[in-house]
Amino acid sequence: MSSLLSAAKETVCTMFERASIDLAEKGLPSDAFQMSLSIYRNYNSRENQILQVSAWSTKGSGLRAFMNAIGPEGGWGDEAIEVGLWYAVQESGQQDGVSQVILIGDAPANTKENVTMKRRSFGETYWTTTKFAAPTYYEGELQKLKEKNIPLHTFYLTDYAKENFERIARETSGSCEKLNINSNRGADLLTHFVTEEVLRKTAGDQGNAVVELYRKKYVKSIAG
């Protein structure tokens, strides 16, 4: 997972810079979109570590500063994707809402049995004092996103996560891709996908045209 964190640090500013330039070229506000990053771990991490989130930002530098303070921690097999989805659901209820969610990981979501068992690590006495007092499961949070028509796009780093990530994307009409984050192509794939989806959502009726502009400028050099 440390490779993913490093790649995210390197690409986040590129995503913002390219998206802002292309929006401006189409006469659209270059700061018309915001992004927030969240890091989920597992129930052997305490409240302040199991879910870490950045502020919403219109500049890549803000998210990069957040990523610079983040390091890998936890492990323990299937991961607490459910708390990441829980956060997305909470944010979707705010004034500006959430237009889409992008999930990247190397392990599937915890099952209900996993959640029950893993929460015993610190005990329910501990968890009831936190914002995660009520156990949550990824299926339930996924349904809430689905009901709000929020697509969830997934990238799996290992075959271990493939089936679960494909299901998560399919349930919300999102897309799913394998990501080799250690290759240049993997970093480019992540950059292109996120930037294109930001442009498509932000530009409204001009979405496809702005994405086409982006591809002509950046993607052809990779494909060729």
Coarse morphology: globular
Second CATH tier, the architecture: 3-Layer(aba) Sandwich
Straight-line N-to-C gap: 30 Å
What is the mean predicted local confidence, pLDDT? 90
- Any idea how many domains? 1
How would you characterize the overall build of this protein?
There is one protein chain. By secondary structure, the protein is mainly alpha-helical. The protein has one domain (2-223): von Willebrand factor, type A domain (Rossmann fold, 3-Layer(aba) Sandwich). It has helices at 2-25, 47-50, 60-68, 81-92, 112-118, 124-127, 138-147, 159-171, 184-202, 207-223; strands spanning 38-40, 51-53, 101-105, 152-156, 176-178. The strands form two sheets. The chain has a three-stranded parallel β-sheet with strand order 3-4-5, covered by helices on one side. It has a two-stranded antiparallel ribbon with strand order 1-2. β4, α8 (159-171) and β5 (176-178) form a beta-alpha-beta unit. α1 crosses α9 and α4 (81-92) runs parallel beside α7 (138-147). The model has no long low-confidence stretch (mean pLDDT 90).
